């Protein structure tokens, strides 16, 4: 019997298969807990997000409810309690009968009278909480700055559409509903001069006209110095968190050159009565560790993306802008968990991804372009890097997850490292030139971390990644770990950490205990 456990601190009761132990460390360390605000800080969230596995042409409430039920059964017992749906709940590509189609001319967005995104009742029928009629407007092609026309919009009276009914269904399963959204205001709200709630301002007055709009959506940034901008974001997060019960907000298309607008969003989230995980993306926070420190100093978010969208592959992991490089940069700047905030390496694309390309899917029969394309050693590499760097764990594969993915996320070593590691440091990083396909290069990234009290009585963790093409030895000294070994331990070493050839996505990785017992 599996147990659905709603409280994050009571998770991990389910025993899962352990084909490849990831870590067997040793001893104890105590750290003080960080301060907590309405923005939930101090613990990297765990959950599932739909973006990697589903397209907007096929996502609807029927599937979403079924997927949530599978999630509650399969991964909630492991602490994955955030169920995050994409922005296509706020519109989409459907024909007049509500049947999903892959036709951009049919795309539309639904807003309320104050310019805030609200659910589309065609995709999410439960969102129609009143019989009020929404007024729809054709696409706008008059803005000379736009290379293409903006999508049409439907504007509904305040309160006519709500995610509260669906959020309540999700909560009954022991999960918390999360929502992906955009920074700024929709161009349709700008063109139609919708009002800013609680003010006499209109949306067009608070838009910042100088920078270009979001590069991958019809959304304008706001002028943070305008008094109406604060009211807009306050009303938006009141709608999401307090009225709908959203527990996780992922705000996309953020710009680190616009920190004042980021701070407005953070302040709005902090005013909400309910606690919320706040996530910023895309990866503009990655190249400069100081930007992450700014987020932490202001307690501006639970998590902030430091890489571009990650769909797997050795190039995305090992490039000079990839996951290994960015994770090391922020680890050695002491950004991991700083003031309760966490660098985010994006979703873990494990299992079946890029699904539903050929029409609506069911939970039992997803139509996927990539079946376990990040499996084997690649999956263990991804999971191990996410664990030691304490990146938030958002699963991206289609539900139900396949058995290899379940064995990884259910591995006690994976959980121990992610939950209990602190003070992460990359003590060695030799990066190969990944553009050279036949160089047989060596490459290493070596992490060490302290461990909080845990069931293995461990106090240190060491993780060694082979990021090169060749099989080699890597020696770690006791002084690098900050330990004084006993005489019989002085000559121990690890000598079988290997990878496959560069032509394969399978790469063996290990976490090694401080007495240097090889564990994989």
Automatic annotation (TrEMBL):
<dbReference type="GO" id="GO:0005975">
    <property type="term" value="P:carbohydrate metabolic process"/>
</dbReference>
<protein>
    <recommendedName>
        <fullName>Alpha-galactosidase</fullName>
    </recommendedName>
</protein>
<comment type="similarity">
    <text>Belongs to the glycosyl hydrolase 27 family.</text>
</comment>
<keyword id="KW-0378">Hydrolase</keyword>
<dbReference type="GO" id="GO:0004553">
    <property type="term" value="F:hydrolase activity, hydrolyzing O-glycosyl compounds"/>
</dbReference>
<dbReference type="InterPro" id="IPR002241">
    <property type="entry name" value="Glyco_hydro_27"/>
</dbReference>
<keyword id="KW-0326">Glycosidase</keyword>
<dbReference type="InterPro" id="IPR017853">
    <property type="entry name" value="GH"/>
</dbReference>
<dbReference type="InterPro" id="IPR013785">
    <property type="entry name" value="Aldolase_TIM"/>
</dbReference>
